Amino acid sequence: MSAPRVAAPERGLGLGPEPGSSTQTSHRLLAYSDALLSIIATVMILPVAHTKIHPDQKLGESVQQLLLAKIAVYLMTFLIVTVAWAAHVRLFQVIEHIDDVLALLNLACMMIITFLPYTFSLMASFPGVPFGIFLFSVCAVVIGLIQAVIVAYGFYHPHLLNQQIQESENQNFYKRHILKIILRGPVLCFLAAIFSFFFIPLSYVLLGLVIVFPHLTRLITWCKTKVLGQRSEEEEHHSMETFSFYLSEPLSKERVEAFSDGVYAIVATLLILDICEDNVPDPREVEEKFHSSLLEALSEYGPNYLAYFGSFVTIGLLWFVHHSLFLYVTKATRLMGLLNILSLAFIGGLPLAYQLTSEFAEKSHNEIEAIQVSCVITFFASIFQFAIWTTALLNEEETLHAFARYGGKEHAFMFAKLALYPCVSLGAFFLTCLLSEFSTAIFHLMQIVIPFAFLALRIFVRISLTAIKSVMSLSRRKVVLLEEEEACLSPNETLS
Length: 496
Known about the structure:
globular
């Protein structure tokens, strides 16, 4: 039986490093790293979103020939970057303070991470050429090695470690454990780099294992414990430690929120970059074609502006739903973290949806398919948010605030808020299939109605709950009246 866990002191409280000393807190370094990693994960979509499609080519053919492979590679590389971010979180759960050497090592790690979008562009543009996947894998290996050096340096200078690890007699255990978490991905990437010159599909399989391996090992361990009742010596040793944040525990809720906010912010920003790049008319063309009328020249870009505002509203409202959800989440479990990452992967695909809905505004057939792709991306981004909520309800006493649990005053409102986007996007998808002539009107109506629906949602939920309570109270009154009538009857009348 494991010993009770001792509450860890709050970071930022109590005595910290003195100003002027060589040791500093890691708060700004973590904020910088989270922001950079969220940016890198998000800009992976740019090679996909900027895929050039010929005007005379149907979008369905383009998706099959050009976009499908790029989208698959984007999802894989996005998830690999989130694995690197998760390893970074684990690393700085152990190392609480930094010095100049650690700060520079972390900067070296971030420099290699910022190079990943270029390697992804090579992979996406040349999926059959080994050099792109080789370069990506080598970068992942170097990132893992730098993080391993950070671990070794931290344990060589124990004053940088968390206070509880400093006081522990088993520092080697924690060192081995965090190194195992950090290096399992780079080992698979090293194998992927080797096999890229012999059998490229196997390299992609190995990179896919980087994503699922932590969850796979966790599942195997759980099955072994439940079915066979066996526990490894490391787990037995681990259970005896009074370390308040086990390395196999869920990620920090605060860093999950920071990383998620970074993804939403960058995706929203990418939209305006496309507007600035592609929708500014050439001065010579304005003078010759539109007789120096800038307003008339800009009117040609009307569908692009409409697509921009619609996409921004979608991203902003999905962030609003995410914010509302995590407002009531007290602890993000491992499964909730995985579902959040999957939701963010589809959020990162919204610039692609913007490109498609703005590029095919005048071509009816391609417009329908572009709108359907946008609805699918929005549906999966929102349905994974709903899945986070559902997962939290399975263990609500540990993961949710009392207001959001079953019977809580915010439970029904949160359910309606999280269900709105999946229902509307799915409904718009099927309506465009049935009423293809009105696909544009349906899509723009969805984008216009949803913000007002969010504003009216609380009123609607309150009216619905009031109506349900009224019906239930009437039925209860009838039951009470029947019971009182039976009580007033004599025994002989009751028997008759």
